[in-house]
Specification:
Layout lengths: L21 E7 L8 H14 E10 L3 H4 L2 H5 L9 H6 L4
C-alpha cells in the first residue's frame, strides 16, 4: 500500500463538504467528542457519502465501557460514550 501525501485531506466532523470520494477514510479519536448520537449518525452518513463504493471507513475511539469513569477523566471534552454497541446503533444506512 502506497499513500501519497498529496491525496491526504483533513476535515472537521460532522459536516464535511468535498467534491471527491475516497478509498479510505480514517477518523481517530474524534467521535467521542460529538455532543450526541444524532451528531454521530449525521457524521457517519456524511462520511459514507465521501467513500467510494468499496471504500473503507476506519473509526478509532476509546471504549467507554472498558474505561468506566476514566473515559471522562482522561479527557474532559469527551461527550458521547463510545462503545461498539453505541456506534453500531448509529449505523448510517
Amino acid at each position: 500500500l502506497h499513500i501519497n501525501s498529496d491525496n491526504i485531506k483533513k476535515a472537521k466532523l460532522p459536516n464535511i463538504k468535498m467534491d471527491i470520494q475516497f478509498d479510505i477514510i480514517f477518523v481517530g479519536y474524534v467521535i467521542e467528542h460529538l455532543p450526541n448520537g444524532i451528531e454521530l449518525y449525521n457524521a457517519l452518513a456524511n462520511l459514507k457519502l465521501l467513500l467510494k463504493d468499496n471504500g473503507i471507513l476506519v473509526l478509532q475511539f476509546p471504549d467507554s465501557m472498558k474505561l468506566g469513569m476514566e473515559f471522562y477523566n482522561i479527557d474532559y471534552t469527551h461527550m458521547l460514550p463510545t462503545t461498539k454497541r453505541n456506534v453500531n446503533h448509529t449505523d448510517a444506512r
